[in-house]
Design a protein that fits this description.
By secondary structure, the chain is an alpha/beta fold. The relative contact order is 0.14. α10 crosses α11. The protein is built from 16 helices and 19 strands. Bound molecules: NADP nicotinamide-adenine-dinucleotide phosphate (NAP).
């Protein structure tokens, strides 16, 4: 029960209408919530088959409530409704795979008889929950990325205290209700809402938290390990996603990938196509094709079934995107499309001849813009692709398999996609970045390993 009297209004980024409110909790409230989760450890984790059953029931309930969730995501995040429906389907996959992990969680048999000293024993490891987990989530996937935190914690048997983004907490309220309806004990699953600086920080610094699982911006994320008391901190952070197109590539597919995934959800995915790096000999042709393709992107009201590019999340983000684009055009980039805005909806932007050192290219843009830069050869393509502080996911389009494998070896990213858009993610994959983009992998199989620790059990052998 919340004791807070302060609230946060949740509004539509498209038209500003009020959608609801949540409590603005304070640090004292967070302290109490962690206390409840910590107390739950005394009873020990529910058995694995019960954890799996909760997750499997949650898949069913989410199927029944799918449209309610899609409308909630679309409303508060400004996500086009068809994309929001896709997020609900993916969240079911995330829950499903977490259930599989719960049912199949195993340790190892240790080869004790491999030494004379060990031969008198039998050794096995058990995977035990690490303890109370703090989950902190971003605004842009208010359902599926929350499932990527809560579902592995449930599968691992960890009580979790979750703080959603202040812009998009309403879908989390629905999800916590759903998980309780699916049978998750309420003391194992706690929701706190309020500003990151107070509520998020109170979670991170608490010594009873054993693992902080954070998805959000690199600026916030890399501050957290310094604030944590003794928790491990796993970070899923930003990117400036490159799509490298060689002259031998299927250009229809490459242009389709850039035009779809540069502008879908106004570029507010951590792996939206941002930098389109194109071999010089086909550069002009790709510029021309992209200019046509951008003209076909439907932007505007996220409730419109035809729209794929809605608003950015708020005015501050809109102004930041437009300022970077203006700085690029002042520095000589060619603006081939877009740049006007109506409220928080920005007309899809295409920039050509972009100096890769500019912010619009090397910092995370998180807006509906694709920036194009030519390269001469494979070596320069690698240098450009790696030429940002980030390393989450990057893509290559080429017909040459040997080159594709060389690129995959040289690109410093957590994931490299070949002839697949770099924005592709399905939820059983290991997903996570290197460099500024993070220090971990999500996907239930990987996350559950992070949230459990091995306990050695030694038995006398005879
Ligand atoms: P953000 O501003 O970093 O916020 C993320 C979360 O951190 C929010 O819940 C926020 O709370 C909280 N927070 C803010 N300051 C905090 C602090 N001092 N201590 C603890 N928590 C704090 O990110 P965002 O704008 O919501 O999301 C967009 C970013 O997430 C982009 O950079 C994107 O690339 C990244 N992202 C990464 C992935 C991935 O898997 N790698 C996936 C999606 C998004 P408030 O909302 O209350 O400020």
């Amino acid at each position: 029960m919340s004791t807070s009297t302060r609230t946060i209004d949740v509004t539509s980024p498209f038209d500003g209408r009020t959608l609801g409110e949540v409590p603005a909790h304070d640090a004292e409230h967070v302290h109490r919530e962690i206390g409840i989760a910590h107390e739950a450890l005394r009873a020990g984790p529910p058995p694995e088959h019960e954890r799996a059953a909760v997750l499997e029931r949650a898949v069913e309930l989410l199927g029944e409530r799918a449209e309610q969730f899609a409308q909630s995501i679309s409303g508060e995040a400004g996500k086009p409704i068809t994309i929001a429906r896709g997020e609900v389907e993916r969240a079911q996959d995330t829950l499903r795979y977490a259930a599989i992990e719960a049912r199949t969680l195993v340790g190892r048999v240790v080869p004790m008889s491999g030494t004379s000293a060990g031969a008198a024993t039998v050794g096995v490891t058990l995977r035990r929950p690490v303890g109370v987990v703090a989950a902190i989530t971003p605004f842009n996937f208010p359902l599926n990325l929350v499932c990527h935190k809560l579902a592995p914690a449930i599968a691992a048997g960890c009580p979790v205290v979750h703080k959603p983004a202040s812009a998009t907490p309403l879908t989390s309220v629905l999800l916590h209700e759903l998980l309780r309806d699916a049978g998750q004990p309420e003391e194992q699953l706690r929701l706190v809402t309020g500003g990151g600086g107070e509520v998020g920080d109170a979670l991170v610094v608490d010594p009873r938290i054993r693992h902080v699982s954070f998805t959000g911006s690199s600026d916030v994320g890399w501050q957290l390990p310094k604030r944590a008391h003794r928790a491990r901190v796993s970070l899923e952070l930003g990117n400036s996603t490159p799509l490298v197109v060689f002259a031998d590539a299927d250009l229809d597919a490459a242009v389709r990938a850039a035009a779809q995934f540069g502008y879908a959800y106004a570029g507010q995915s951590c792996i939206a196509v941002q930098r389109l790096l194109v071999e010089r000999s086909i550069y002009d042709e790709v510029v021309e094709r992209m200019t046509t393709a951008v003209g076909d992107v439907r932007f505007g009201d996220p409730a419109d079934e035809e729209v794929s590019c809605g608003p950015v999340i708020d005015e501050k983000s809109r102004d930041a995107v437009l300022a970077k684009v203006r700085a690029a055009t002042s520095a000589g980039a060619r603006l081939l499309a877009g740049g006007d805005h109506d409220g928080n909806v920005i007309e899809p932007i295409l920039l050509a001849d972009v100096d890769p050192a500019l912010d619009v290219s090397c910092s995370e843009l998180f807006g509906p813009a694709v920036v194009m830069t030519p390269f001469e050869d494979e070596a320069e393509a690698i240098e450009l692709a790696n030429g940002t502080p980030y390393g989450l996911q990057g893509g290559v389009f080429t017909a040459d398999l040997a080159r594709a494998l060389r690129m995959a070896g040289c690109m410093e990213f957590g994931g490299v996609t070949i002839n697949v858009p770099p924005t592709f993610r399905s939820d059983q994959m290991p997903y996570g970045g290197t460099k500024e983009s993070g220090n971990t992998k999500e996907g239930p199989a990987w996350a559950v390993r992070e949230l459990t620790e091995e306990r050695l059990v030694l038995l006398a052998n005879g």
